Amino acid sequence: MAISLLDLSSPDRIIEFINTHPLPPVTVPQSLLTTSSLPDDFDAAVVGSSLMSFARGLLPQQRKDLSMCNLYAQQTACMKDYAPQLDWFERYKQLLLAFGTAEAETLEVRRPAPGSGMRDEVQSVIAQAGEEYGELTRRALASLEDDRPAQVLFEQESKYSEGSQFQVLPCTGEEEGVVNIALYHREFIYEPETPWWWWGGKKAQLTGLKERLCVVPFRIDFFEGYRPHLQARVKDHIQSKIALLDIGS
Description:
alpha+beta
């Protein structure tokens, strides 16, 4: 079990952290949404370098809260002066766990049979955490495949100087204040001349593959206490870092 390194055990502590860790300004505005607030009717989204999907039982506000929290954790993890002793994923994961006052159950990744395309591999690995996670991921990937602007955002946000990395987070329904999230992280180096690394499937030239998978019982009790502060921090990033998807019923 991996326990959060951050002591954000109350709304006051979370607010203090948010106020002392502002996000960097958006350098390249890109309007994928028409407003700086999320709508009520989305069931999946590209959120920075993450693909999120939500079970039907989750309320609209819960979907918004989880998306904003994920976006803030990603952007903060990219700041070089924050927890430099950890790699990017550990910084991101520890922030996410701290906001959800959660512990993550780390799962061993069982690699699919050789020859699978990247989409099939991702879905297969996530399904190891549970059938519902796998189905949510399958539908989100299918929707992403049909949405060119969302693809472009996902690819742009996933790239960094040494390669690419992304997360997939299917979120199941809320029960007693907890939303269970499968958190899958994939890091790899791809050949720049390979077109559309994500959709290249078996043809994509990938090396240095690292995969991590865990299940996070994310508590949403505290959102009422710090939601306005979180909204204020991510407001300028929502329009340029989030693309909504429709995965159907």
